[in-house]
Amino acid sequence: MDDSFYDPPAGYALRKNGTCGADQETCGNPWLDWHNCCPKGTECNEHNTCCPEKAGCEQWLVEDPHCANNKTWDLYETEPGGNFFCCLSTSSAYLAGGLESNGSATTGIACADGIPDGAKDEALVPVARGTAYQSSTNKGAIAGGVVGGCAGLALIIALVWFLMRRRRQQARATDPLTSSDPSTPAQDKKGVYGFELDNNAVRPELQGNPNTMAHELPPDTVPQELPASPVR
Q1: Cβ neighbours for 38, distance < 8 A, ≥ 6 positions apart
Q2: Given CB 3.0 to 4.6 Å as the disulfide criterion, which of 71, 94, 165, 216 pairs with 132?
Q3: How far is 9 from 37, CA to CA, in rounded Å?
Q4: Quick check: 13 and 69 in contact, CB under 8 A?
Q5: Is the dihedral of CA 148, 153, 154, 160 positive or negative?
Q6: Integer-rounded Cα radius of gyration of the chain
Q7: What digits encode the pLDDT tens for the residues 147-170?
Q8: Could you read off the pLDDT of 45-71 as tens digits, one per residue?
Q9: pTM to 2 decimals?
Q10: What are the Cα distances from residue 39, in Å, to 77, 86, 100, 154, 194?
Q11: What residues contact residue 180 under an 8 Å CB cut-off, 6+ apart?
């Protein structure tokens, strides 16, 4: 038989105070006004189970415990390795102490709209939440993760922009072309540093008359002495 045959609406029954709903089967009255309820279309079986047929499905549910309505019911366990039962996702499960059955002390299994406040009552933690509850929780977690991720990304972008801006400012402060330090030589329009004459290593000579040509004496010319003037 296909395992999916034991998927919901097969599962553990709902523990409800009062009568079961119009869309549910009443599967017994374990104590006081509490009843076990199974979805319509399933059969009430032993150990608080709802199965597709009378043959039973508990052996399958032991391997994969879940509520008959796993959308709006939460699954609880009375004790490790014990019996399972379900409560509406809007309520809480507890073990009601101080009860008697055939003259012996016993414990009842119940669901409360709030947290039970009886001195002998013990609140239980769900083994599995209904999928409708999990779906809304996951959506909230996803939405929170998206918002947090966007905020983190914006913070990283702002930090990178700040570091780049600071780096550009530092580079501009140490660049002689853009520095405002008066000790740094100014830049002329052509991108060449302008120097005062006393800092210029090259000294241009004064230019003579362009129409006058200068000639040097030939090397083999011997200058002659002028004759001495007669003494008078």
Answers
A1: 9, 13, 14, 24, 25, 27, 44, 50, 68
A2: 71
A3: 12
A4: no
A5: positive
A6: 51
A7: 777 888 888 998 888 888 888 887
A8: 988 999 988 888 888 888 889 999 989
A9: 0.55
A10: 20, 12, 30, 50, 96
A11: none
